[in-house]
Specification:
Length: 490
């Protein structure tokens, strides 16, 4: 296939010459090529509709598009997808890519079974909704998902159209599944049953994002290696029994009823565990994870018992998995006054951490003290990623409220810290606020052996501020440090 991609431009130039020759009585040498080669040429067109239009070139081309093993539809009327599938003559379909607007559950349910019968590879279906999101649900209709017995990869982004799961059938070859922006139709417990080993014996990668109506998700899979769950606001019960699971990320789930949430995770081979949810810590059961090397958690600088219990649980995880090599930590400050403890004094030393990803959402607060506390626990870090994350689009920094204690204790500004292993620093989302510059200046002072620094400005930074920082930041580093400063790409 790489060979055909490399000769594609040459064949297109040759096609133009041959057709012009044909107009003057020359020979159409392109149409004399074997079918297999012509089909490879049409695949390079990368659009099913354009490939079908090649039928006007000569009678030799009229049915070639129907033999294509790949069909791609970009921003096309959804009715044409069904017609194209019905006209196909090839027995197998290795790829179906469809990006369509305002498709109805009825129209999708009409052609998806046709695709399921011939698909042996991947399907990517994205629906852009133009009608009201609740209209299809009010009509009581749903997209009927057929059983893709031979598909290896399925990506469904339905714009919150209702989706009815198949009651029977085995997705025998399915390895990669993504369900995004979907409203489950019927019993939500059926999703866990569908994705467990009995019906998806080859599933190794699963992503479920922004799925509504999913209050219970219980999956038992011996093949699953990677799972990501995010935006499952209705979720109350989560059970994961996956002996081969290596990566588990759960984010922004249980948000509607955090006090009623229950999670039980058994994954003895887990190496990456990221848990970012507001929850009752006593409701989570984690079995032994002796191989864990990456931990992702978040802390809240807030008053109140809920924040205290959450942060205390995060510190418990750090003490339990103190031999981790990668720490991915988020620190959130409230927009109003900051007066709550975040238990940093209970954070253990993490001498084995070599990669630290530290994200901060500050709302104008000073975050130097908390950042110093984290970094000082990871003195063996070799690579540091520092993200200044924005919860709003305000260009100028919002002043910290009077009486706020976010900068306490203030000795971080003068405290000496030797980061003798830190060689690589990447800073993202920088706008040049006073608090950002203060932390970066101290960080470069602590990083005595740093070799490479990459700084990416936030896309909303002003031109004047960017110019000022380009002159200021290099002065914080030793002359031999390689510094790369760039703008964020929207």
């Amino acid at each position: 296939m790489d060979f055909f991609r490399s000769i594609g431009p040459l064949l297109r130039r040759r096609s133009t010459m041959d057709l012009s020759d044909g107009d003057s009585g020359g020979e159409d040498r392109l149409s004399a090529l074997p079918d297999d080669l012509l089909i490879c040429i049409l695949i390079l067109v990368n659009d099913a509709a354009a490939a079908a239009r090649t039928s006007i070139l000569a009678s030799r081309w009229r049915r070639l598009w129907a033999l294509l093993p790949e069909l791609r539809f970009a921003s096309i009327d959804h009715h044409r997808i069904g017609a194209a599938l019905a006209a196909r003559e090839a027995p197998d379909l290795s790829l179906l890519f469809a990006h369509t607007k305002d498709a109805s559950p009825e129209s999708l349910s009409a052609w998806l079974p046709v695709a399921a019968r011939s698909l042996i590879g991947a399907i990517y279906l994205e629906v852009v909704r133009l009608e009201d999101e609740t209209e299809a649900e009010e009509r009581g209709t749903a997209v009927d998902l057929p059983c893709f017995e031979k598909a290896t990869s399925i990506v469904l982004k339905l714009g919150f159209l209702p989706l009815a799961l198949p009651p029977s059938g085995v997705f025998a070859r399915l390895g990669d599944l993504q369900l995004v922006d979907i409203q489950l139709h019927g019993q939500s417990s059926g999703l866990g049953d569908l994705l467990s080993s009995q019906r998806c014996p080859s599933l190794w990668c699963l992503q479920v994002r922004n799925v509504r109506g999913l209050d219970s998700f219980n999956i038992h899979s011996v093949s699953l290696r990677r799972m990501e769950l995010s935006g499952l606001r209705h979720l109350q019960q989560l059970t994961v029994m996956a002996p081969a699971l290596k990566t588990l990320k759960v984010r922004n789930c249980f948000t509607l009823n955090p006090d009623l949430s229950v999670a039980k995770i058994s994954a003895p081979q887990l190496m990456t565990f990221k848990w970012r949810n507001v929850h009752d810590p006593s409701s989570i059961q984690l079995n032994e994870m002796m191989l864990l090397r990456t931990l992702g958690i978040e802390l809240f600088i807030l008053e109140g018992e809920e924040a205290f219990e959450h942060n205390h649980y995060c510190m418990t995880l750090l003490r339990r998995f103190e031999r981790i090599r990668t720490l991915d930590l988020m620190i959130y400050y409230p927009p109003d006054i900051c007066a709550g403890p975040y238990l940093m004094e209970h954070m253990p030393s993490l001498p084995y951490v070599t990669f630290l990803a530290l994200g901060v959402v500050a709302y104008g607060h000073s975050f130097g003290a908390s950042s110093f506390d984290v970094i000082s626990r990871c003195t063996g870090v070799k690579q540091l990623d520092l993200d200044f994350l924005q919860e709003n689009e305000l260009v100028e920094e919002t002043p910290c409220p009077s009486g706020c204690i976010c900068d306490e204790p203030p000795n971080w500004r003068t405290e000496e810290l030797a980061l003798n292993c830190l060689e690589d620093i990447e800073i993202r989302g920088m706008r040049g606020t006073e608090h950002e510059v203060a932390l970066v200046q101290r960080l470069f002072h602590w990083a005595t052996v740093v070799k490479k620094v990459k700084i990416i400005f936030d896309e909303l930074i002003t031109e004047g501020k960017a110019k000022e920082l380009r002159q200021l930041l290099p002065s914080f580093c030793r002359a031999e440090v390689c510094m790369d400063i760039s703008m964020s790409v929207p």
